[in-house]
Amino acid sequence: MKPEINIALMNAAQEILSRFSPMIEDEYEQSRLNSWGALILISAMKFNQSYSSLVEENKSMISWLTKTKKNYSKELSAEIDNVVVKENVEQNILDEYNQSLRRILIKAHIEIDLLDDVKNKRACLQLLRKMHSHRKVSDLIGMLQQADS
Amino acid sequence: MESNKDLSNKFIAYYSSLVGKEISLLSFERIFGGASRETYKIHIKDQSNLQEKLILRRTQKSSLIETSQSTEYLAYSAYQETSVPVPLMIDINEDQEILGAPFMLMQQLDGVAASPFTPDVYSPNEQKLGEQFWSILGEIAKKDIEDDFINQFDNTGNPCWKQELDKWIAVIREDSISVEPILEAGIRKLYENEPKESKKKSLVHGDYRNGNFLFMEDRITGILDWEMAHIGDPLEDLAWALSPIWSWQDQGKPAYMIARQEALSIWEKVSGLTIDENDLKWWELFACVKGMAIWISAGNEFKTGKNIDPINLFSPWIPGDIHLEIILNILDEDLN
Q1: C-alpha distance from B316 to closest chain A C-alpha (Å)
Q2: pLDDT score of B188 more than 90
Q3: Measured between CB atoms, which of B181, B309, B318 is closest to A109?
Q4: Which residues on chain A are in Cβ contact (under 8 Å) with B319?
Q5: Does residue B38 lie within any of the structural domains?
Q6: Confidence label for B62 from pLDDT (cuts 50, 70 and 90)
């Protein structure tokens, strides 16, 4: 069993912050190196989730767009049909697929907003919040502050 | 790569010639975090041992926010020796040969700046500092601006809100590297619900917030970073300073100082202006979209390798995420 990539990144960050950074006298260069240490630490924390988060986000969008399809114009419905049929998307185009789904979601949101349907408007915002929570790294802000100090 | 030593030598030659006497260097240090200009703290002395502390701001080849240094200089100049504390300006120079890029020079003020992401940083003086922070912003809003001063800034002839919104949307369209449905929803909301045009036009600081002022214990000693200054609606600065991003871990106290209602009362009293709640709400959503434009622009610099300063990775990661969350909160509130 070999050490995982996130462990390697975490150890690299720790070395940067606690071993190399104190050796630097120039305040600017030290601050810059500390920032790199903290950002590598965040990368390590989020590394393992990044693939599964993207898969999960795509699934959520497909599920919601399919469920609410009846509310949309013919053109948008056809676009949804075209894009959601893709299954078992390969990892290298997962992000591309995600961007296509996001483009459709924007159109769906515009059409939802034109309807007098608060329930669906709210559901759309809930979906956006769920997607955001999969991706965000701002929950690790405390870690940056620690590294900074 | 240019070293600090090369630059400091060039600086000494330039400054000796400017002041007409021989000077020598005590220290020359770059300050970390300047997103739009390289900023250096300089300590010098002349032959009679008279010491001077200066700040050099040099234009970067690639910066987080593309801004004109003449705009920044103009804004600083407008508040020299007023109740809005700003450093004394010494020179602005567009010549690329002297220090390798255009630059401006000012006196260094005493005090320290704090990170806008650190709660409790103003403790135990947050009450006094908060009163000054919102009061100074009121002074900025109150200042009457002459037409010939206004004419030195960009003006599309559109209402203030539209001029600013169009400007930042253009940045988003130019620099976006991914599709962002939350941001798009925020942009639609702004265009669909335009605010009233401000009766009073002010010199807007453009980045008035905690982190952009110097303080010593309970006293604000300087308002810095005027590079995004422009003529506009005074509510723009107010909304930017109030944005929950600048007090993310203690949202009851905007800018980590005093409560929102107290801040608004001070601002109204000092500026002599009355806040329209709906218009302020519009500008608060605008603040998030403008912020996103800045973070997106930084992310683009980083991803394309034009400028891999870690601040250009930090910006889309942390502030970018926070501003998206605030947009969602605003959209949610509007549905309730």
Answers
A1: 10
A2: yes
A3: B181
A4: 138
A5: yes
A6: low
A50 touches B at CB < 8 Å: no
Q: Where are the domains of chain A?
A: 3-47, 49-136
Which residue do the tokens 């944005």 mark?
Answer: B243
> Cβ separation of B29 and A39 shorter than 8 Å?
no
Q: Is the residue at B116 inside a domain?
A: no
- Both B166 and B95 in a single domain? no
What is the spatial distance between Cα B70 and Cα B77, in angstroms, rounded to a whole number? 10
Q: Is B313 on the interface with A (CB under 8 A)?
A: yes
Residue B42 lies in a domain: yes
Candidates B173, B199, B193, B167; CA nearest to B67 is: B167
Q: Which residues of B touch A120 (CB under 8 A)?
A: none
The CA distance from A79 to A124, in Å, is 18
Give pLDDT tens digits for A92-121: 788 889 999 999 999 999 999 999 889 999
- Among residues B74, B107, B140, which one ends one of the domains? B107
Position of tokens 């009766």? Answer: B199
Q: Which two tokens stand for residue A110?
A: 């515009």
Does some domain include residue B118? no
pLDDT tens-place string over residues A43-90: 998 888 888 899 899 999 999 999 999 999 999 999 998 887 666 667
CATH number of B28's domain: 3.30.200.20
ipTM: 0.92
- Rounded CA separation A95/B52 (Å): 54
Which amino acid would we find at residue B209? R
pLDDT (mean) for B16-43: 90
DSSP SS3 for A149: coil
Contacts of B182 in chain A (CB under 8 A): 128, 132
Domain that includes residue B31, residue range? 4-107
For residue B118, the chain A residue with the least C-alpha distance is A145
Residues 123 through 182 of chain B touching chain A, CB cutoff 8 Å:
178-182
Q: How many domains does chain B have?
A: 2
Report residue B319's pLDDT band, with 50, 70 and 90 as the boundaries. Answer: very high
Query: Chain B: residue nearest A105 by CA?
Result: B181
| CA dist., res. B24 & res. B204, Å (int) | 38
Question: For the domain that residue B273 is a member of, what is the CATH number?
Answer: 3.90.1200.10
Measured CA to CA, the distance from residue B112 to residue B264 in angstroms comes to 25
**What global pTM score does this model have?**
0.94
Find chain B residues with C-beta within 8 A of A39's C-beta: 310, 313-314, 317
Contact assignment for A109 to B185 by CB distance below 8 Å: yes
How far off is chain A from B31, nearest CA to CA, in Å?
6
